[in-house]
Amino acid sequence: MKRIVIYLIFVVAVAGLGALIGINNVPGDWYQSLNKPSFNPPNWIFGPVWTTLYVLIGIAGARTWLEAPSSSRMHVWFGQMALNFLWSPAFFGMESTMLGLIVIIPMLIAIIVFIGKSWTRDRISALLFLPYLAWVGFASVLNISLYLLN
């Protein structure tokens, strides 16, 4: 029962905080006015993608917490989460593609580090982070493109 509670806490906290940050940092007129690359996805895709990713991130966080709560893997997990939650306020809130880059590049690195640290100790957590890595890699390219186009 305790394990289920830990999983619920992580998933609800990650998805809930992510939703709260998203609601408070919606793409507005500034974002709509930016020149966008041809591969810019439609706005409606971000909500479902991030909800799915936050569930996967929460599960990986709970698995890591249950196995090694004070490990370097857990510290990296919390670090990437902090960067994740900073990106929307930096990019949308501050209306800055440059600040977005300053946040998203270390976030991408932290995701890679978490996968690397988890690969031999908890392959499932590492695998749960692969879609996240793919999406943040894509988001990094999109962020760089928006910076260069504007």
TrEMBL record:
Which InterPro entries does the record match to this protein?
A: TspO/MBR-related_sf, TspO_MBR
Entry keyword set: Membrane, Transmembrane, Transmembrane helix
User: Where exactly are the transmembrane stretches of this chain?
Assistant: 5-24, 44-62, 74-92, 98-115, 127-149
The answer to whether UniProt assigns keyword Secreted to this entry is no
Compartments where located:
Membrane
Is Cell wall biogenesis/degradation one of the keywords?
no
Recorded topology in the membrane: Multi-pass membrane protein
- Quick one: where is this thing mainly located? membrane
Q: Which family does it belong to?
A: Belongs to the TspO/BZRP family.
Q: What is this protein called?
A: TspO/MBR family protein
Q: Which organism is it from?
A: Rhizobium helianthi
